[in-house]
């Protein structure tokens, strides 16, 4: 097994068109994530899927037992791939993700998924804090418009702000084509 793991975060049905919490560009991001995942599988890198399930039935999305919590078919786990279920934005918080990575001797974590401003941010910062070399494949991530004090911040600006912050101190930020060429 390689010393690299691709960590696929929350590419779940509720984020896709018709879901409870649609993201801008999720279909393109998921297609890019699928390319990263397939390359990882061919190279013998570890692929770990993270699935967010809120703990209560009153959740705004990712409701326990709903189709919206299912990992989308485009990136569905293969037999033998680990699925880490989380209840918080940070996939390391109260899960066994770090133990899974450590048990395989993983040194580098490659992050793809959703949402750029929330779970991707939390995952990348935590991975870096835990000492993993961390890469974000930015066009394999998606987000949505946000609102603050009556101002709508477009998804593209949210994404750019997050990637610039992560690239400053926490991770190498790249795009799918560059990552796959590397």
Automatic annotation (TrEMBL):
<keyword id="KW-0378">Hydrolase</keyword>
<dbReference type="GO" id="GO:0016787">
    <property type="term" value="F:hydrolase activity"/>
</dbReference>
<feature type="domain" description="Isochorismatase-like">
    <location>
        <begin position="5"/>
        <end position="148"/>
    </location>
</feature>
<protein>
    <submittedName>
        <fullName>Isochorismatase family protein</fullName>
    </submittedName>
</protein>
<dbReference type="Pfam" id="PF00857">
    <property type="entry name" value="Isochorismatase"/>
</dbReference>
<dbReference type="InterPro" id="IPR050272">
    <property type="entry name" value="Isochorismatase-like_hydrls"/>
</dbReference>
<dbReference type="InterPro" id="IPR000868">
    <property type="entry name" value="Isochorismatase-like_dom"/>
</dbReference>
<dbReference type="InterPro" id="IPR036380">
    <property type="entry name" value="Isochorismatase-like_sf"/>
</dbReference>
